[in-house]
Amino acid sequence: MEPRSKSENFRKLLQFVRPYAPRLAAALGLIVLLALLEMAPPLITMYIIDEVIVVGRWEMLEAALALLILVPVLAAGLRVLNAFTFSYVSSRLIMKVRLTLYEHIFRLSLGYHDEMGTGKVMSRMMGDVATVRQMVSMQMLRVITDFVSVVAAVGICYGLNWKMALLMTVLIPLYLVNYRIFVGPIRATSRRWRRQMDDVSVGLQERLSGARLVKAYGRERREDRAFAAETREGLSYAMQTQTHRASASAGFWVVSGLRNTLIFCLGCYFVIQGEMTYGAVMAFLSYAMRVFEPILNLMNVGIRFEQMMVSVDRIYEVLDHPVEVRDTSHAVDLPPLRGHVVFDGVWFEYNTGEPVLKHICLDVHPGQTVALVGHTGCGKSTLTSLLMRYYDVTEGAITVDGYDIRDVRMTSLRKQVGQVLQDSVLFNTTLRENLFYGNSGASERQIIDAAKVGEIHEFAMRTRDGYDSRVGDGGIRLSVGEKQRLAIARAVLTDPAIMILDEATSALDSLSEALIQSAMANVLKGRTSFVIAHRLSTVVNADLILVMYRGEIVERGNHESLMKIPNGKYRDLINQQFAGNPAVEDAG
């Protein structure tokens, strides 16, 4: 992907702001009013010193003091209103960014998810978006207020004494030089820190999800040390960033100290020479502070802006990633399927020049059960992933009932293809809600029937809350077999025309497997089925068995015909598995 410039990413971020332009315009008007209002106190103070105290117009003191009190009260009210406006806009803007990011992530191919990992994606969705929100909500208000304040204060300073104002203006570039010295290192160390935090997030997600395994092997201390090492490295980058920021702030304060000394001395000289009054010098010093403090704030905001743009860049690394598998403009909805599946000369590559599947030709008739067997990595799961259109074929075509799956809407395809994987994915909710995920419109009778097919109904009835029992995070409260049976029931509830069982019964004990095999025989009847099995005993009754080797179908037929092939690969797999040879590779 082409690298994105900072200005390009910033323009893209502003697209999210446009719907709130009227509110922001009103807020901008209030900011200008606020900045001008806050310019008044030094002028009022100058009037009190020069006209009330020195001249002796004491009758004006009460009005001047009342005005001096009223200005901060009005300014506080405007600040609250502005803060609310920017908080409202930033909250909705960031919600839109996060939703856009979330929606885009689920449009990306599984290959992207495999490459990025859950931890890195979550780091961008939560950490980076939160960084942008902080900048937008708080710093934007400060930037605009400070900018208006600087312009107004500079104008008033030139009105009070142009010579002192000229000296003040000459000192301003020193702030800019200091900023340019440190902004590059801050940006670089911030980027390294965010990348390290990605790795920490990935490691944390893996360790927490694998807590049972960590405890089983007594590796708590090892994982503690590994996490501490990763965190220390992140801390090192964070400290480098803070060191650069502290150095930049120190430079700012050095310039500020020089400014105060020079302006104060020059002001005293002009008072002695009779060019300025005491009140005018006090007012000038106050406005000089209102020039340099906002500039100092703007420099600090600039540093934070650089850190924010690192986060924006990381967000657009995701948003700019192309959606490789998408519905075409002429895509149509699939009608109810009969289940006729054809792989016509299919080739597929994850990486260019490294084919995973080679010239797959397969004609599966409606209601036929096809078993896929072969050593790990031979392409079995990839074949079914292409049928689900998680990826697009590199060459050739896949059709269902004569429709090229690239020409139909993916939702209409996937709603008619049920899939049960080896690793069941369950949500931290109830048994009922996990079943509903397959078919939200299912009736209670359909839920129970599907649960009986999956041999999970009796388990549900034994629990205190029945189908309303919670399964815990990732189904932690269920056994491996119970989780798998629940996943099978969920797939059955969709009433699919095509069923994919990818090691669906590998996690079950012999008794549960026997019960489910019997039930699944009824479920698969009349449905086109693709079965990937570790236990070859579960596929011997398949209508068609495909033996895959290095991405190719090297043998095909039913169990009897394949067993008759001398030195055939299927026959070798059967003999190896039933011989109980521990050196045999995974047959699924």
Radius of gyration: 35 Å
Number of helices: 19
Query: How many strands appear in the DSSP assignment?
Result: 10
Shape: elongated
Given helix and strand content, the structural type is alpha/beta
Strand content: 5-15%
Portion of residues within helices: 55-70%
How would you state the average pLDDT, rounded? 80
Annotate the secondary structure layout.
Layout: H1 6-15, H2 21-38, H3 40-54, H4 61-105, H5 110-116, H6 118-160, H7 162-209, H8 211-216, H9 220-272, H10 278-319, E1 341-351, E2 354-364, E3 369-373, H11 380-387, E4 395-400, E5 403-404, H12 410-414, E6 417-420, H13 431-436, H14 444-453, H15 457-462, H16 480-493, E7 498-502, H17 510-524, E8 528-532, E9 544-549, E10 552-557, H18 559-563, H19 569-579
Parallel strand pairs: 3-8, 3-9, 6-7, 7-8
Antiparallel strand pairs: 1-2, 1-4, 4-5, 9-10
Helix pairs in contact: 1-10, 2-4, 2-6, 3-4, 3-10, 4-6, 6-7, 6-10, 7-9, 7-10, 9-10, 14-16
Describe the overall structure.
The protein is α/β, with parallel strands linked by helices and 588 residues long. Helices cover 62% and strands 10% of the residues. It has a six-stranded mixed β-sheet with strand order 6-7-8-3-9-10, sandwiched between helices. Strands 2-1-4-5 form a four-stranded antiparallel β-sheet, with helices on one face. α6 packs antiparallel against α7 and α7 packs parallel to α10. The chain is elongated, with a radius of gyration of 35 Å. The two termini are 36 Å apart. The relative contact order is 0.08.
